[in-house]
């Protein structure tokens, strides 16, 4: 398998795209740690499913808004498994609302998880990643195309991942670490259910007139995590059903 002997940490691995990614990486042979904030039982279920695949697994409570907690999660992963090869920055929160109803407290909360938490996790992980290491961040299709009003704060937080990815690719590349960004389109999860209030409009912007599945995003993460993608860095891969076309 492509990830035999590798250790991955997936932030926000208790549900949705993160859970699918944790399972996919384990299916490729990786041992996997995942963080969660509120969904401890669901995180434990994912851990059980990874162990059933014959891999080692660990769930760590760590609020991505708390940089110290995120750093401790990276350290706990290395303490448990002895190394870290793959960081998947997935934990994120959504926000939809008009500018006039968006408070500065909302700005602080969303940026703390979607931007500061990613920075903290990557900074902590970078010291452990060696040649062949991987940083894969889950951005969003809204960095390419904003489908309607009310997205300013969320788009701000996800567009920041573009610059971070390119800059860190330059910084970590000389050590053999690739840094890439996956931008999902509308994907059926708790955050953006395919039967939710905004679903019809989002679906109509894809070329397939359908939502994506979390497993489809996880497949692209698995590609980027594998040794065969070693010359792919600073890339922005859309898994968006053509949402940006
Ligand atoms: P879900 O809401 O389904 O899952 C979010 C995951 O992130 C959960 O595991 C949750 O854990 C975790 N999480 C949320 N806040 C925190 C926090 N403060 N600290 C630690 N973990 C946290 O979302 P998705 O799976 O849909 O989203 C995953 C990523 O994909 C996000 O970055 C999102 O922005 C992005 N994305 C999603 C799209 C979609 O259409 N679904 C489209 C484009 C991008 P817990 O429940 O334990 O708190």
Automatic annotation (TrEMBL):
- Give the family this protein belongs to, as stated in its UniProt record: Belongs to the short-chain dehydrogenases/reductases (SDR) family.
Gene3D superfamilies (alphabetical): NAD(P)-binding Rossmann-like Domain
InterPro entries, per the entry: KR_dom (IPR057326), NAD(P)-bd_dom_sf (IPR036291), SDR_fam (IPR002347)
List keywords of the entry alphabetically.
Oxidoreductase
Coiled coil, from the record: none
GO molecular-function terms, A-Z: oxidoreductase activity
Domain annotation Ketoreductase: ranges: 6-187
Question: Per its UniProt record, what Pfam families does this chain match?
Answer: adh_short_C2
Task: List the protein's name.
Answer: 3-oxoacyl-ACP reductase family protein
Which lineage ranks, top first, belong to the organism behind this chain? Bacteria, Bacillati, Actinomycetota, Actinomycetes, Pseudonocardiales
Q: Which EC number(s) are documented for this chain?
A: 1.1.1.-
